[in-house]
Amino acid sequence: MEISNPHDAFFKEVFSNKENADDFINATLPEDLKKNLDLSTLELDNNSYIDEELKENFSDIVYNCFYIGKSKIKISLLFEHKSYVVKYPHLQILRYMLKIWQTNIKQKEKLIPIIPIIFYHGKDKWHLRELSSYFEGFDEVLGRYIPDFDYLLTDLSGYSDEDLKGRIFLNIGLRITCLMMKNIFDEGKVREHLEEFLAIGKMYYEQEKGLKFLEGVIRYIYNSTEIKIEEVIEATKKISAKGGAVAMTTAMRLRQEGLQQGVQQGLQQGIQQGLQQGAYNKAIETAKSMFRKGFNLEVIAEITGLTKEDLKRLVNEKH
Questions:
Q1: Is the pLDDT of residue 258 over 50?
Q2: Under the phi-then-psi rule, with left for phi > 0, alpha for psi from -120 to 50, and beta for the rest, what region is 294?
Q3: What is the tally of helices (H) and strands (E) in the chain?
Q4: Contact at 8 Å (CB) between 217 and 224?
Q5: Which of 119, 283, 301, 315 has its CA 20 to 30 A from that of 104?
């Protein structure tokens, strides 16, 4: 079954969970920044600040948090969902931050500092650069007029599978998520290591939240690869009886959703064809009326949109 962006959907599902976000932020923020954050105040911001232009590349999950002195800040997880390296990320991030600050102004709030974190899982390595490095041939005097700021980057291609299995994140779901997203474009590898990756959550699948997470993983694999759902069920059953049951139930739902989508697409195509046929029939009737009134073929073609072949056929039928 095709959906618009399974990577984006999976990312949002995982990182909207506060426990996952907390673990991710703890593992990726530099110590000098992290020590000043009160992560116990971490709270999901239900707003998105992605506009029409930015959504071509990014989607966002935003958290509010308190910094030293109870100052409110935002931590924005920006998922690069096209899975390729953006040429000028600073420009897009700056646009994004301006969007948030404009919201602050409209709501008559103080401007809120933003920590942008790009989450990238494409094949090519992302090279982290300073904004000023995009400009060439300027000295320190001119440099004062070029804005500079940092963003944080999580490039999954820079981590080994062993790192992601247990050396970086504490949260089981986050480990599996990053392993899956890092390797999802190598279908052969995912198939080969599927049981190994899923086995990390063996004990997690004994919990309700673990089973819900597993359902999300199965949907992600189904929507992102050509791996057969039977293979996923078989791998899951070897790890956990409860997980195997969830895998089978999820497979049934996915198949049902696929059937429903097929029916809906068929109905939409039928309606569209019906409308097209209706418009064609109406054009034919208009053409016949114009023939009777003595209009020439070129004028009739221009007004009705019918082809010369259609009009010739009408003339032959008349005679």
A1: yes
A2: left
A3: 13, 5
A4: no
A5: 119
- pLDDT at position 34: 92
How far is CA 216 from each of CA 13, 56, 274, rounded to the nearest angstrom?
8, 24, 38
Name the E strands within the chain: 37-45, 58-67, 71-80, 114-120, 152-155
Q: At 48, give phi and psi (nearest 5°).
A: -115, 140
Cβ proximity of 74 and 33 under 8 Å: no
Mind listing the pLDDT tens digit for each residue in 169-227?
999 999 999 999 999 999 999 999 999 999 999 999 999 999 999 999 999 999 999 99
Two tokens, residue 73:
């800040």
**Of 278, 62, 23, 36, the residue nearest 164 (C-alpha):** 23
What is the Cα–Cα distance from 80 to 91, expressed in whole angstroms?
14
List CB contacts of 257: < 8 A, sequence separation 6 or more: 1
What tokens does 212 get? 């819900």
